[in-house]
Every structure is written in C-alpha cells, then in structure tokens.
Write the structure tokens for this entry.
Amino acid sequence: MTRLALLLMCVLPLALLGGCATVPSSTVRPGDVASARSGTAPIDVAVDTSTARADLAALPIKGRAPMTGYDRDAFGPAWSDDTGDQWGHNGCDTRNDVLRRDLTDVVLKAGTHGCVVLAGTLRDPYGATMIDFVRGVGTSTAVQIDHVVALGDAWQKGAQRWTPEQRRAFANDPRELLAVSGPLNESKRDGDAATWLPPYKPFRCAYVARQVAVKRAYGLWVTRAEHDAIAKVLDGCPE
C-alpha cells in the first residue's frame, strides 16, 4: 500500500487521523529551498467505484448560478481554527494541520505547540512528483492546499445559500483539502471536473470520487457537463 493510500485512509474515516504522522521538532538550515525532484512518484489509490457512482447518481444536475457576490472572504478567514471538525480549536490553523497530515519527514517549528510546519516532503497526487517543502518567502507556495471542490465552484452550486458558519466549515473540512503542487493548484483555479483534472491520470479516480463525496455531504449540485466528465472517469476506474 502506498503512502498516499495510507493518507486517504487517514482522511476517511476522519477518526484515524490521530495516528498518521510522526513529526520531529527541529529547524531548517539557512539556504534550504523548496523544489520538485526529477522523475515521478507513482501513486496508486484504490477507489470504491460503486460508492462513487452512487454518490454521483444522488447529486442534483442543474446549471451554474452566477458568481455574483462571490469572494474568498465569504468562506471566512483563510484557514480558520474556529470549526467543529476534529481539527477545530486545536490551536493550529488548518493549513498547518493539512501539511502535517499530507507531508512526510515533517519538521516543526519549536515553541509553536507542534503547529507550524517548517519543512517536509510532499508526494504530489496531482503531478506525481516529489516536492521538498520549506516555509519561507518565495518557497512556501511550492506546496499549496487545494480545495478539492473549488470554493468558486461550490459558490455557483449551492454554497451561496449557506450561512457564514456553513461556508467556514466547508472551507476548512479535512475531506475537502489536499496538499498539492502550487503551480497545479493555480492552474485549476475554480474549475470543476469538466474543465480540470489532475495531469497524473492514475489519481483521477480518487480525485473525482472525493469531489462527489464532498458535494453529496454538503448538498451541492453538478452541471450536466461535470456529471458526464466524472462518469467518464469512473467508467475507466478499476472495480
């Protein structure tokens, strides 16, 4: 079983998160930088395609609502600790929570109660590269936290009707978040499965399965083009 498979097992069910990472406390040497290593990191993730298809079938199919009124701030302060999930009110912001979960060889900043991630290694699920993460100006963005269902997409498919508290919970839900390559996250923008899929094709099954699970959990809908794109990916997934 790959490390990413273990990672996803730690996300769903969420109760397993507590035993997933060993994180030494240390410091990063001056001059360290974040970089993507040459070559690829094979990532094979088993997906329950029957459940994914059932989740997809349960989603309403509608057109997009307008983006009118959308702003990142509508989903609350970025990486708020004020949530009701298992990470809520633990004293650490959600970004650092995700980095601790998804990176290996994690280095934590002393004196932050185990919160601030200084460095680590990401096996990027979107591009299948190994990325050395180092916190700092010009390096932190090498690894970004992706909302698997983009916030702009959620806004157009039901989230604009939510309360501020519901939107804050969604934006910080561990099921909705993955540490990924910064450039690939930026290329995704607010795209859904009809307009953007991870370049690393073996991860697409897990990616769309995560999207439909999140959308079903939060009562969001899909467009016809999005539904058909997800169905096409799932049709090519091993049972």
Q: What stands out?
A: Residues 55 and 217 are 9 Å apart (CA to CA). Helices lie at 3-11, 49-58, 94-102, 151-156, 164-171, 182-188, 204-218, 224-235. The chain has one domain: 22-27+34-235. The two ends are 17 Å apart (CA to CA).
